[in-house]
Amino acid sequence: MERVVSGIRPTGNLHLGNYFGAVRNFVRMQHEYDCFFFIADYHSLTTHPTPENLRRSVRQALSEYLACGIDPDKCTIYAQSDLPETAELYLLLNMNAYVGELERCTSFKEKIRKHPDNVNAGLLTYPTLMAADILIHKAVKVPVGKDQEQHLEMSRTFANRFNRLYNCTTFPEPHAFNFGSGLVKVPGLDGSGKMGKSEGEGNAIFLADSPEVIRKKVMRAVTDSGPVNPGQEMPEPVANLFSLMRLVSTSDTVEFFESKYQDCSIRYGDLKKQLAEDMVAFIAPINEEIHRIASDDALISKVMDQGAEKAHASANKTISEVRNVIGFRTK
Ligand code: TRP
User: Fold this and answer.
1) Ligand 1 atom 9: residue of nearest CA
2) Which of 77, 97, 158, 206 has CA atoms 20 to 30 A from the CA of 185?
3) Residue 194 is among the residues annotated as catalytic for this protein
4) Short-list 249, 320, 321, 325, CA closest to 283
């Protein structure tokens, strides 16, 4: 079965945009491929989190992914730091990664621009660590967004360079896996663009949000003063609310409000109330699962242990091969 690797940032809570995008696809992929999903906690050290924050965010990320349907018996889900083989491969790949190419990386340039006071070597070598994450399992498919295309290109460069240097075929070429038709656009609540964590407070509905918070955010969503001519085109903020409604409400509900819009009798307050309730109902079971899992220490440890063990089995094979190819003693 083809191997898939993807890294999950432990920084944040999942919102509906993540859910209908990457997460739902991960859940689907675990049935079709040999999937390795890991929480990228080595990577997150570039921003120097406190141990408490790191622990809490890794645990929260794991709980949220499990609550969404990632099944530890169907795939391998683990903490990156539980697989130090990744760090060994990272060191080895760094010997053939050139400072020039790392400095030219768009994400690195962006980071120096935003955080000129923290330009550490971990940031510079972020693409080598990412390559190690992928190559340690010899993955060929990497489900990531457009923003990761350049990192993937670099992973291919490092893989091919290693193979050439040692005249071997150790690493296959990893390629970005595009979800294609599986991706739906999930707009935010601020009237423009997509749902995103960095778009400002109130734009995103998180899976961990309480019903009260969801209601408050939806009621504050941007609209306009309402349609005046029957059949008039919807402005973007209103169209966005309908898009969200299509994700969480029944088609009858959507049609009801659409016809109200068409004949200009719509009251946005009613639409928002309905949308909020349907979102609350949609999120409730996931939200409950998040809380159940996050408060179950034994379950969290069990899943982490199981993931680490499966990841080790895969990584050990690669590392032995790599050490042998390089001329080191093999373990
Ligand atoms: N760089 C990815 C992101 O920011 C996370 C990541 C780290 C990753 N290592 C990876 C993704 C390996 C896929 C494969 O989203």
Assistant:
1) 130
2) 77
3) yes
4) 249
Distance 129 CA to ligand 1 centre (A): 9
Task: Give the orientation angle of helix 268-294 with respect to helix 297-326, to 10 degrees.
Answer: 70
Residue that has been written with the tokens 């960095």 in this structure:
198
Mutate to test the pocket of ligand 1, among 38, 86, 144, 179 (most ligand atoms within 8 A of CB): 144
In the predicted model, what is the mean pLDDT of residues 64-80? Answer: 98
User: How far apart are the C-alpha atoms of 102 and 222, rounded to whole Å?
Assistant: 42
Domain 3-184+297-326 in this protein, CATH class: alpha beta
Annotation says 138 is catalytic:
no
* Domain ranges for the chain: 3-184+297-326, 197-291
pTM of the model: 0.93
Instruction: Say whether 216 is catalytic.
Output: no
Q: In this predicted model, what pLDDT tens digit does every residue of 197-216 receive, in sequence order?
A: 877 778 999 999 999 999 99
User: CATH says 197-291 is which class?
Assistant: mainly alpha
Cβ of 6 closer than 6 Å to ligand 1, yes or no, is yes
